């Protein structure tokens, strides 16, 4: 018989979602109110203010899209890329590949800058791509490539785009709240993130931010945005401050309580402290993993603290180990994607998951599983 669902208690150390603190779950359980209720409007205003802090921006157009990170990605591309626009797309993992797919579907003309999976995006290649394609109107790159654990130099990449008069779209789904993201200082025009990675909120919301230059580009479009739901000019009427808020769609009211709480917690901790905590926990985990003989996929200087990709030792059945971790230790870690499937593990230290007890639990569980695996071999 089907009755109420009770999830198992897990420790989430994969590529997201991350552990959600009870305080955020409690916030989500508060009574649902109408999405046009003045009290909800106040929550929306506060959420925008808190997101500006998280993104380190003054952008007026900063809000959460009512859908997961992939929708934030799509919102950036469908609004900012018109048919025929040349877009330089950096691809050093799965999510850069998705950006490329978005450019194609918007009718853009992509110029792909490829770097090896596990490497950061090479700014020299991006510069060369702009020199060969001076008509390019846009640069798109992933700041924190969750498929490999590599971080790219967003400031350097955005500066090159500016030099060539292009706008920049940045994926900061995995970096926001975990490593420095400085939208204004770096001169990023559009950025999108996700609620369930280093913000440690429940999945399903995508914070986005757009610069004044990006808004101008949307206003100057030759044709309407193909997507009705993601058309910024329509969503604006819903998210605008002060004025008359009109019905666009029904906001996910309770998940919005959760995001608000997650952002309040981030502000209480302080961004710098959150970044330092992710870094400290990464160093703890690194020592433990290296003691187990595991080696990292990404070169030390490009490593993301919140996503630790390690090579699976030769002869080890990686899926069997992950299954044991889940069933015996209630611990979720991530598998490799694409070309890296079966070859790497991705151990996340995102948001509330980046705690010492988790690091020790993970190291202990891996030690037991790998020891057993070797004895069986
Ligand atoms: C998780 C992730 C996404 C997609 O977010 P969803 O919430 O799963 O749609 C996009 N880009 C990066 C880098 C991610 O890690």
Question: What's this, in brief?
Answer:
With 377 residues, the chain is an alpha/beta fold.
What is the CATH homology-level superfamily of the largest domain? Type I PLP-dependent aspartate aminotransferase-like (Major domain)
Biggest beta sheet summary: 7 strands, mixed
One letter per element, helices H and strands E, the order comes to: EHHEHEHEHEEEHEHEEHHHHEHEEH
Give the strand line-up of the largest sheet. 2-10-9-8-5-3-4
CA radius of gyration is 21 Å
The amount of helix comes to 40-55%
How far apart the termini lie comes to: 42 Å
> The CATH topology of the largest domain is what?
Aspartate Aminotransferase, domain 2
What is the CATH C level class of the largest domain, in words? Alpha Beta
Look at the structure and give the mean pLDDT: 96
Q: Ions, cofactors, ligands: which are bound? A: pyridoxal-5'-phosphate
CATH architecture of the largest domain, by name, is 3-Layer(aba) Sandwich
Number of DSSP E strands: 13
Query: Based on CA inertia axes, which overall geometry fits?
Result: globular
Secondary structural class? alpha/beta
Question: How much strand?
Answer: 15-25%
- Low-pLDDT parts are none
Compute the number of structural domains.
2
Number of helices: 13
InterPro entries: Aminotrans_V_dom, Aminotrans_V_PyrdxlP_BS, PyrdxlP-dep_Trfase, PyrdxlP-dep_Trfase_major, PyrdxlP-dep_Trfase_small, SP_NH2Trfase/AEP_transaminase
Cofactor: pyridoxal 5'-phosphate
Family: Belongs to the class-V pyridoxal-phosphate-dependent aminotransferase family.
Pfam families: Aminotran_5
């Amino acid at each position: 018989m089907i009755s109420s669902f009770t999830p198992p208690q897990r420790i989430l150390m994969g590529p997201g979602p991350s552990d959600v603190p009870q305080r955020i779950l409690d916030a989500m359980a508060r009574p649902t109110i109408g999405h046009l209720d003045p009290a909800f409007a106040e929550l929306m205003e506060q959420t925008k203010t808190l997101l500006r802090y998280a993104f380190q921006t003054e952008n007026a157009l900063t809000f959460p899209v009512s859908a997961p990170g992939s929708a934030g990605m799509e919102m950036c591309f469908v609004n900012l890329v018109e048919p025929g626009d040349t877009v330089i797309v950096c691809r050093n993992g799965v999510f850069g590949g998705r950006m490329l797919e978005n450019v194609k579907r918007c009718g853009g003309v992509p110029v792909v800058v490829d770097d090896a999976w596990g490497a950061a995006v090479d700014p020299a290649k991006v510069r060369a791509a702009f020199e060969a394609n001076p008509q390019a109107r846009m640069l798109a790159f992933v700041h924190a490539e969750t498929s490999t654990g590599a971080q790219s130099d967003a400031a350097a990449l955005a500066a090159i785009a500016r030099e060539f008069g292009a706008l920049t779209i940045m994926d900061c789904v995995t970096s926001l709240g975990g490593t420095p993201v400085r939208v204004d200082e770096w001169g990023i025009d559009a950025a999108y993130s996700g609620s369930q990675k280093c913000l440690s909120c429940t999945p399903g919301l995508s914070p986005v931010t757009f610069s004044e230059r990006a808004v101008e580009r949307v206003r100057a479009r030759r044709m309407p945005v193909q997507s009705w739901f993601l058309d910024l000019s329509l969503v604006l009427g819903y998210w605008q401050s002060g004025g008359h808020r009109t019905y666009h769609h029904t906001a996910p009211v309770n998940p919005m309580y959760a995001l608000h709480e997650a952002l309040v917690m981030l502000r209480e901790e302080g961004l710098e402290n959150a970044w330092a905590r992710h870094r400290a926990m990464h160093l703890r985990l690194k020592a433990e993993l290296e003691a187990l003989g595991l080696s990292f996929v990404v070169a030390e200087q490009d490593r993301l603290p919140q996503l630790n990709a390690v090579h699976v030792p030769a002869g080890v059945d990686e899926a069997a180990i992950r299954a044991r971790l889940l069933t015996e230790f209630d611990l979720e870690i991530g598998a490799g994607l694409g070309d890296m499937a079966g070859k790497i593990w991705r151990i996340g230290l995102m948001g509330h998951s980046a705690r010492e007890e988790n690091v020790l639990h993970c190291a202990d569980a891996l030690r037991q599983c790998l020891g057993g695996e070797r004895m069986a071999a």
